[in-house]
Specification:
single chain; 374 residues; mainly beta; Pectate Lyase C-like; 3 helices; elongated
């Protein structure tokens, strides 16, 4: 039963070929439960670390409510659960993260609150099939959760409040971090990006990100095939979404009042659909030079300070996209081979469509633009 979050992850990400792996883990975990021990802190062991050190496959470490100073680490463990039985605060101290999971697999961490500390709140490294459920961090000196060189990590129902770094960061520092799922959480006022992805085939969905001091969501260069879905990003200091990696799928997003561009695209072959952008501080969507083969479908930009859509890359497609009340141009196209179909721009301060390329360089069909230039 306690392994359900991993099964849930596999069901949501079956295209990543993790379901067979999860099934094997699940069956072996059930088999081990017959002889499982429950180690209670502080009843059976005075510290969380001592209980973890004593735990074997199938065991459950239960931590009673209280404030526990220091930190704890799960290293080289398989099939153990560490859960808080009520409000458990880890008052982190010293140079290490508040909670570390290193070189482990099939670990469930549930219900902990890491408070303060100079390093990351929760750090996962060189591990597989890890579940972090209902955990919180606040005012940590690094990232709220940092996942490095790991696969199949699930972070679910979380809150990261005022980390000095990113809310959640996925890092590939030797091995590609892949197949991770981040969902149903809140990231509040991170000192850097809300979520930064450096890896392949990861999914972020149903998250609320507020007041990121850099970008709300960023997919770093060298990353591929990641998915961002059903998230709300509010008041990011820079862009709501920044795409440097390739082949990202973005769908059903709300980007509210980013300080700079709503979506900033530097790379190729992204699929972006059903995104609503309200009051970006600059352009709604900017396709920078070198961004090619991207598709934007049913995206709406409302009252951007700059252009609704600034198209500087070649061979991109915009379908049923809308710009309403742009502070400059609804659609500005300065590159070639682009397709605009069934698009709309109204109430633009400048032109609804401004195409500075030679005639016939781009394809337009069934659009509604009243003011066209130059």
């Amino acid at each position: 039963m306690v392994f359900f979050p991993i099964v849930d992850f596999a069901m949501n990400a079956n295209s990543w070929s993790l379901a067979p792996l999860a099934a094997i883990f699940f069956c072996s975990f059930l088999h081990s439960r017959a002889s499982a021990d429950i180690l209670v802190v502080p009843k059976d062991h005075p510290t969380i670390q001592e209980a973890i050190n004593a735990a074997g496959p199938g065991d459950v470490v239960v931590v009673r409510p209280g404030i526990y100073s220091g930190k704890f680490q799960i290293t080289g463990k398989t099939q153990i659960t560490v859960r808080a039985a009520g409000k458990v605060i880890v008052a982190a101290s010293g140079p290490a993260p508040g909670i570390s999971i290193v070189g482990s697999s099939q670990i469930i961490l549930r219900g902990f609150w890491v408070k303060e500390g100079p390093n990351h709140g929760i750090a996962i490294e060189d591990s597989t099939a890890i579940t972090v459920d209902r955990c919180r961090t606040s005012h940590v000196g690094g990232d709220g959760v940092r996942i490095t060189d790991s696969t199949g990590v699930l972070v679910d129902r979380f809150e990261m409040k005022r980390p000095n770094g990113c809310g959640i960061r996925l890092v590939s520092d030797g091995t590609v971090t892949s197949g991770c799922l981040v969902k149903r959480g809140r990231i509040l006022h991170p000192g850097s990006d809300g979520v930064l992805i450096e890896g392949d085939s990861n999914l972020v969905e149903r998250c609320w990100i507020s007041e990121a001091q850099e970008d709300g969501l960023e997919v770093a260069a060298g990353s591929s095939s990641n998915t961002l879905s059903k998230c709300t990003v509010k008041d990011a200091l820079r862009s709501g979404i920044r795409l440097d990696g390739a082949q990202t799928t973005v769908s059903t997003m709300f980007l509210l009042e980013p300080g700079d561009t709503g979506i900033e695209i530097f790379s190729d072959n992204h699929s972006i659909s059903k995104v609503i952008l309200k009051k970006p501080g600059d352009d709604g969507v900017r396709l920078n030079p070198g961004s090619e083969g991207n598709t934007l479908d049913r995206c709406s930009v409302v009252r951007p300070a700059g252009d609704g859509f600034d198209v500087e890359g070649n061979s991109n497609t915009m379908l049923q996209c809308r710009s309403i009340g742009a502070g400059d141009r609804g659609f500005e196209v300065t590159s070639t081979g682009n397709i605009l179909s069934s698009c709309l721009a109204i109430l633009s301060e400048g032109f609804d469509l401004f195409d500075s390329t030679p005639a016939g360089s781009n394809t337009y069909s069934s659009n509604l633009f009243k003011k066209v230039g130059p």
